[in-house]
């Protein structure tokens, strides 16, 4: 009982020594609830005391036997979210029936006879789901990396075929009379324009795939970091957001395709501009009066690999493909606005 006589009132006078500058709170830090004067940075929060403590004021939780049983978590500025609003006790149970977090007193009242488990057990249940999502995300990264390699091969083929076509057209045009110089320039520009258009499509699609890979890698990082938190409630709240994002249409867009038949890029490894060359040879033989007639055939023969880009999003499912968490900055928010739900929701202060 002598050890337990250290009260909450006495915590604030345990140490009056000045703390190093780095111990004091900065932007985004959680303040110690028991520091007087300048607040020090909290290192832990107690769900039993519903308060946050700096290193100095946390010491009784390691010394007083009865306080050693208190549940400590990483410092949090939203402790009230972990407390039952009806019974003022810790939310340590998850109700499957109502899909909500409750306290033990709730199980004797409104949630009596409901299917409920401890948050620790519920976390264990969700842990396997987390691992499954990590594996799926890694698999999708590999699939998209493969698509990038296929696109790079397509780009090389387009460049090689285009360069060959330009060289052939230049050789043929040099054999034409001076009156055909203008036609030669137009055909060269047509081929170059086709190359530029197809390479532009390929580069945009590669950028999009690389962005998707970066997004998946970011999600994998979040999924890997989440199991290290010892705050069960925070874990379960965050996994709901992450898992819902993984189940969205972000990775299974039905309209994503690189060719008409399938998602695989089909590249004609023997692309040629024989039609262009033959048409130009005919023009050279048939003289100026046939130039206009033969020239209109050139565009049809200049077609290259078609790379289909993703269309603009139009419905909810399309927009979910670009889903991400939005966190607002409490340091720059307007004084008429109030942030909640871990800075993810905003309401106006009337």
Topology:
Elements lengths: L7 H4 L32 E3 L4 E3 L1 H4 L1 H4 L8 E3 L18 E3 L4 E3 L13 E3 H56 L6 H45 L6 H16 L26 H13 L4 H5 L2 H4 L14 H5 L16 E4 L4 E4 L2
Antiparallel strand pairs: 1-2, 1-3, 4-5, 4-6, 7-8
Helix pairs in contact: 4-5, 4-6, 4-7
Please, could you describe this protein's structure?
- The protein folds into three domains: 23-84, 30s Ribosomal Protein S14, Chain N; 126-248 and 274-304, no CATH class; 316-348, no CATH class.
- The two termini are 50 Å apart.
- Mean pLDDT is 75; it is low at 1-6, 12-18 and 248-271.
- It is mostly helical and 350 residues long.
- It is elongated.
- 45% of the residues lie in helices and 7% in strands.
- Helix 4 (119-174) runs parallel beside helix 6 (232-247).
- Strands 2-1-3 form a three-stranded antiparallel sheet.
- The chain contains ten helices and eight strands.
- It has helices at 8-11, 55-58, 60-63, 119-174, 181-225, 232-247, 274-286, 291-295, 298-301, 316-320, and strands at 44-46, 51-53, 72-74, 93-95, 100-102, 116-118, 337-340, 345-348.
- Residues 127-161, 192-226 form a coiled coil.
- InterPro entries: B30.2/SPRY_sf (IPR043136), ConA-like_dom_sf (IPR013320), E3_ubiq-ligase_TRIM/RNF (IPR051051), TRIM8/14/16/25/29/45/65_CC (IPR058030), Znf_B-box (IPR000315).
- It holds the Pfam family TRIM_CC.
């Amino acid at each position: 009982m002598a050890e337990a006589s250290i009260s909450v009132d006495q915590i604030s006078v345990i140490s009056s020594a000045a703390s190093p500058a780095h111990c004091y709170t900065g932007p985004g830090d959680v303040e110690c609830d028991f520091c007087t004067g300048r607040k020090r940075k909290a290192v832990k929060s107690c769900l039993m005391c519903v308060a946050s403590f700096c290193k100095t004021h946390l010491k009784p939780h390691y010394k007083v036997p009865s306080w050693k049983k208190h549940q400590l978590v990483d410092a949090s500025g939203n402790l009230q979210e972990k407390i039952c609003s009806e019974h003022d006790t810790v939310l340590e149970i998850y109700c499957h029936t109502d899909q909500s977090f409750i306290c033990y007193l709730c199980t004797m009242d409104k949630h009596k006879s409901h299917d409920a488990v401890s948050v620790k057990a519920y976390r264990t249940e969700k842990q396997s789901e987390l691992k499954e999502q990590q594996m799926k995300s890694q698999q999708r990264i590999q699939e998209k990396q493969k698509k990038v390699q296929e696109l790079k091969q397509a780009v090389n083929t387009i460049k090689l075929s285009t360069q060959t076509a330009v060289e052939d057209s230049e050789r043929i045009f040099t054999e034409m009379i001076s009156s055909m110089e203008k036609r030669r320039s137009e055909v060269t520009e047509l081929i170059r324009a086709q190359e530029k258009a197809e390479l532009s499509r390929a580069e945009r699609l590669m950028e999009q795939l690389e962005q998707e890979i970066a997004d998946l890698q970011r999600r994998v990082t979040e999924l890997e970091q989440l199991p290290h938190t010892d705050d069960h409630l925070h874990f379960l709240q965050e996994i709901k957001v992450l898992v819902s994002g993984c189940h969205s249409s972000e990775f299974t867009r039905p309209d994503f395709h690189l060719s008409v038949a399938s998602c695989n890029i089909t590249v004609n490894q023997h692309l040629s501009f024989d039609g262009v060359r033959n048409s130009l040879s005919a023009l050279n033989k048939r003289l100026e009066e046939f130039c206009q007639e033969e020239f209109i055939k050139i565009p049809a023969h200049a077609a290259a690999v078609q790379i289909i880009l993703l269309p603009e999003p139009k419905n909810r499912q399309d927009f979910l493909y670009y889903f991400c968490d939005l966190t607002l900055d409490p340091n720059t928010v307007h004084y008429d606005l109030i942030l909640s739900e871990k800075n993810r929701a905003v309401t106006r202060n009337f």
